[in-house]
Amino acid sequence: MKMMIQLKKRLALPQTSWQLCLLAAIGGFVSAMLVVIFIFAIEGIQSFYLSEKEDYSSLTALSRFQLPIIGAIVILFFAWLTGYKYIRTGIPFVLHRLKIANGVMPLRNTINQFIGSTIALATGFSVGKEGPAVHLGAACSSYIGSKLNLPYNAIRSLSACGIAAGIAACFNTPIAAVLFVMEVILREYKVHIFIPVMIAAIVGSMTTSTIFGPVHEFEYFTTISLDSKHYLTLVVLGVVLGVIAFIFNRYLVLIIKHSARFHIIPRILTAAFITGAIGYAVPYAMGTDLSAIDFSLQNNPELQLLLALLVAKMLMTITTLGLGIPGGIIGPILGIGAIIGTCISIINMYLFPTTLQASDFALMGMAGFMAATLNAPLAALLCVVELSNQIEIIVPAMIVIASSCISSGQFFRNRSIFIMQLEVQGLAYRRPPIEKSLQRVGAIGVMQEQITLIADNDNKTIASEFPKHSSHQYFIIKKENIQGELEYIWCQPEHKKDNNLIRQKLIPLCSQSTLAEAYLLLVKKRSGGVYIYQDNPNDIMGIITFDAIRSYLLKGKTHQ
What we know:
single chain, 2 domains
């Protein structure tokens, strides 16, 4: 018991610890295994009716129309079983839970995420695997922290580790996974979180590499032939990507906003009908990204066909995600970016005949569109570097990413699609700077344990005890109130060596809480304190005063 309390005290502090790193590795492995099961489930379902993974062109036109509708019915059935109010899933929901619940994920939402996304990805909806991987990873790791009753700041860190492991397991891109967590999820860089996140990403990537092999899904990207004479074209590509990213984000948010008034049943069925109708005519728009990229790069299509595929893919993705189909967004935007890049390469070859490969511009399109859509330039850069296994693309990719982010953000005020989704759905994702700072510290790690507990209400008895103890001693009266409930009163002398006592009622606070929760309980009066308990509210472990919290904010420590 004492060892567990010491572990919690250690994890409560914002410091690098081997204990958190070990938990991150365990959580990363469990998260990666759940992602493996998730991928096997998708491929297992597809194997019944597809000759190859994601090859929806092998189906008849009528089957392509019917398949998403069947999938929507199954998704709605499981949503009904778990309760429609638990349908929220994906990266925006994870961001919301990190802010309001320290990364703890409700079980029913996680079930809907796993089953709903498996069906959606298996039946041709234009969604990605990374959204479910993020949700499942966060749920796995935070579940471990919750079961161990760890401080909420440690659970939040473990949730971030699970997210990194999920993304790394999904794409086999551990570096990009770490940057994604820091840049998009946490939106801060702290060493004590960075190292466990990195360990979890490594474990996640190693787990899936062992099972599926070390290769990436994108095998068609050979050594690029881009050099300085192509840089102007890359800038043009970046500007085009920024404009299209703005259009994509804007209309996706508009559909989310205007469809919220309708029940989930007509929304899901409408998304299925649109997906089936588009898939009937343009089979390569179905699925996450592989089908669209394969068609763009391996069939030497005409520009008109590529533009038609681009419109179909964008329309299918916007309606699918906007109307509530569970799934991720990164896979489809990588596909859209590749199509845009291929279109620009064809135009470039018409204007300036060269032997440049379309895959070069496709790769640049993936980087620029991801960066502009998610407002995550570093994560996008590392993603394409790892997917292509080519460090030579860094400079060209940086040019595309910079121009796409500038054109999208500077001229169109575009922001991260995840933040826009949270705002339009009315989900909280921000906390004031003071609370954000205090959220990093667990209350159990900084509580004052030098207390004297007195079951007496006599001022003289209490005052006589003061000279016997150091000035850092806290005197707590334990008494019953009118309702017969136990209360704890903090007593302190009005002046040093003074027998006049000031009494302030202590507010109970769970040992898992952070200083942010303690601050919110005390900030109105700006005085008093809270007492920390573990399981039994009548078993006091220590106290934290408002003065101690103020001292932490000013000096970085709680000692007074």
